[in-house]
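2.7 Reproducibility. Because tokenized structures are sensitive to small changes in the input, we list the exact sequence used for Sodium:proton antiporter NhaD, including any N-terminal residues retained from the expression construct. No trimming or masking was applied before prediction.
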Amino acid sequence: MKKSRWLLLLLLPFIATSTFASEALSNHAINFTQSTVGYASLLIFAIAYTLVMLEEVLQLRKSKPVLLAAGLIWIMIGLVYKEIGQVEIAKSALEHNLLEYAELLLFLLVAMTYISAMEERRLFDALQSWMVGKGFNFRTLFWLTGILSFFISPIADNLTTALLMCAVVLKVAGNNARFVNIACINIVIAANAGGAFSPFGDITTLMVWQAGHVSFSEFIPLFIPSVINYVIPALIMSLFIPKAQPDSVHEHIELKRGAKRIVGLFILTIATAVGFHAVLHFPPVMGMMMGLAYLQFFGFFLRKTLPKSIAKKKALAIANNDEAALKRLGSIVPFDVFRRVSHAEWDTLLFFYGVVMCVGGLSLLGYLGVVSEIMYTQWDPIWANVMVGILSAIVDNIPVMFAVLTMDPALSMGNWLLVTLTAGVGGSLLSIGSAAGVALMGAAHGKYTFFGHLKWAPVISLGYAASIWAHLFLNGSLF
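Resulting structure tokens (single pass, no recycling of outputs):
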């Protein structure tokens, strides 16, 4: 029996889910953990998630295997529940899973649309140009990209932030592969740490917030532990970076009309989502969808006033005899909100669907109840949450956090914050542990690698352990 329990614990990343199964469902669901359907479902999802982990090697998008696995698992569940005459239980579980996914999908879709709009208005290009044009040395650039990653990721999410900062490093560093590798590691750590103390910084924090375990303001105690998680490894790694001056070419970037106002609308959208959740106790996705209307109306304003704006700029360019400005005016196209929606990370959004539905089925079969018994009943919750962070480094942190939320253990506020912290920053231990790390391996292909990151794992582990200690020491009253 002990061997089977340890096997289930090792399979935790493969039986994670984003569903928060209701008590009514769990009370009526039948335990299929020792059945052929249960074993087959576990095997199917384990194979699918192995293909996800090999995405960079196989060049197979991660959504494909989990979408197929989701269909196969629910076919088996549907057939077995139909055979025993209780198909309504399976149908209720399926609908519950779909509702939870719909909230996450729409929330992320709005956030991604705003980020895409900022990118189209050249905000990120302007930031990149500013950093490149300042002529910083390698060590200054190392700290600047890390600190900016830490403070931008709570708003723009860790993946977008990491890609932006990586573009700066690649543009400045040139062929200096050693600096690119260590700078990318620094960016991954900073982006993940910065995302840990904000509901908007990572998918895992967003899920904890939407589930109602931690309110928006209650994430603030994680700020200092997150800082410690970033600063300790950054201080050590900075000692190995030369103060040499890189070759850089300054490029002037002109922001497109409305760029700064879109940032303001995004902040207003976040405030609206927080208000819906904190004041009305509605899902925050309602506020995000209302925020999409802000962007749509502003897009309508930009389109209607575009001819007048072009005429004004044309007159100014002719008066100044600015041929370059006249040429740029010829390439201006109207702002299109729906084009920004189409540029969302659809592979990621569909991957979430596959994980939700695959493992929602495994939860209905009874596996999450067994794992919850092992980790949160037999173990001390603190050590269980530390293990969650380590598992997040091996697999992606998202399914691991899904598992914890599905188990819904009785945890204190301090422990909910601890698991939020460990799931967020634990992914920095390995390059494959977070979306930021996986993305940068593709963006800096051959320069930032799995083994290049692994070499610094002991240093990153110091930051991981220190951030946990800081949380236990500073926020002990919350446990």
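Residues 1-27 have pLDDT under 50 and may be disordered.
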